[in-house]
Specification:
The complex is a heterodimer of chains A (about 120) and B (about 120). Chain A has about 120 residues and is mostly beta strands. Chain A is globular. With about 120 residues, chain B is mainly beta. Helix content of chain B is about 0%, strand content about 55%. The N and C termini of chain B lie far apart (about 35 Å). The chains are: A mainly beta (about 120), B mainly beta (about 120).
C-alpha cells in the first residue's frame, strides 16, 4: 500500500516569512496529491491539490510542487500570516480506478506563525 | 449549503453504553465517510458508503456499526466501546467516491469528540 512521509512535524516561522512542508510517497501509481489544513479544534479543509500531469500549482500565497520522478511534493506558503497557524496534512491517492479509493495521509505538520 | 453537520459535538459514555453519532449533508454528495482522529495524528479511514452501500470497511471492530439510512444521512452506532476508542470522529462527504474522475475533495464535518470512561 501507499506510505506518505511528511516533514517537518513542527515548523515555526516569523510572520511574513515563507514556510515549506515536504512529503514523499511510495506508490508510483499515486497521481492525486491534496493538502488539508486543520486549525485547532476545527475540521480538516482542502486548501490546494495537484495532479501528476502538472508540476506546479498556485493559489494566491499557496503553491504546491510535484516531482513524480523523485516521488515528492511540497507545500509552499509565502508571506505567512498568524491565521496560517494550523496543522497541515499532505495526502496521496491513486485515482486511476485501479487503486483503493483511499487517501493516505501524512502524519501532519504543525505550523506556528509568530507575529 | 456546503456543510457537513455532525451531532453530538461531544459525547461521554461508559463501556456498557449504546450511543450513536449522526452526520448529515445536503450537498447531493453520494459518498460518505467515517474517519477516526486521535490527537496530533492524521484522520484514519473507518468506513466508506457509496450510493448508500458500504464500499469500504477498514477492519474496524464490530463495536462500531455504520448505517446509511439515505443519501443525506450517515450514522455510527457505538456499543461496548473501550477507553482507547476515545477520539474525534469525523464524518466526510464527497460528490462521488474519492478516486473517480469526477471528484476528489472531501468535505469534513466538525467532528464528534468521544470520551469512553
Amino acid at each position: 500500500g501507499e506510505n506518505v512521509e511528511q516533514h517537518p512535524s513542527t515548523l515555526s516561522v516569523q510572520e511574513g516569512d515563507s514556510a515549506v512542508i515536504k512529503c514523499t510517497y511510495s506508490d508510483s501509481a499515486s497521481n492525486y496529491f491534496p493538502w488539508y489544513k486543520q486549525e485547532l479544534g476545527k475540521r480538516p479543509q482542502l486548501i490546494i491539490d495537484i495532479r501528476s500531469n502538472v508540476g506546479e500549482k498556485k493559489d494566491q500565497r499557496i503553491a504546491v510542487t510535484l516531482n513524480k520522478t523523485a516521488k515528492h511534493f511540497s507545500l509552499h506558503i509565502t508571506e505567512t500570516q498568524p491565521e496560517d497557524s494550523a496543522v497541515y496534512f499532505c495526502a496521496a491517492l491513486d485515482d486511476s480506478g485501479a487503486g483503493s479509493y483511499q487517501l493516505t495521509f501524512g502524519k501532519g505538520t504543525k505550523l506556528s506563525v509568530i507575529p | 449549503d456546503t456543510e457537513v453537520t455532525q451531532t453530538p459535538k461531544h459525547l461521554v459514555m461508559g463501556m456498557t453504553n449504546k450511543k450513536s453519532l449522526k452526520c448529515e449533508q445536503h450537498m447531493g454528495h453520494r459518498a460518505m465517510y467515517w474517519y477516526k482522529q486521535k490527537a496530533k495524528k492524521p484522520p484514519e479511514l473507518m468506513f466508506v458508503y457509496s450510493y448508500e452501500k458500504l464500499s469500504i470497511n477498514e477492519s474496524v471492530p464490530s463495536r462500531f456499526s455504520p448505517e446509511c439510512p439515505n443519501s443525506s444521512l450517515l450514522n455510527l452506532h457505538l456499543h461496548a466501546l473501550q477507553p482507547e476508542d476515545s477520539a474525534l470522529y469525523l464524518c466526510a462527504s464527497s460528490q462521488e467516491i474519492v478516486g473517480t474522475a469526477y471528484t476528489r475533495e472531501l468535505f469534513f464535518g466538525e467532528g464528534s469528540r468521544l470520551t469512553v470512561l
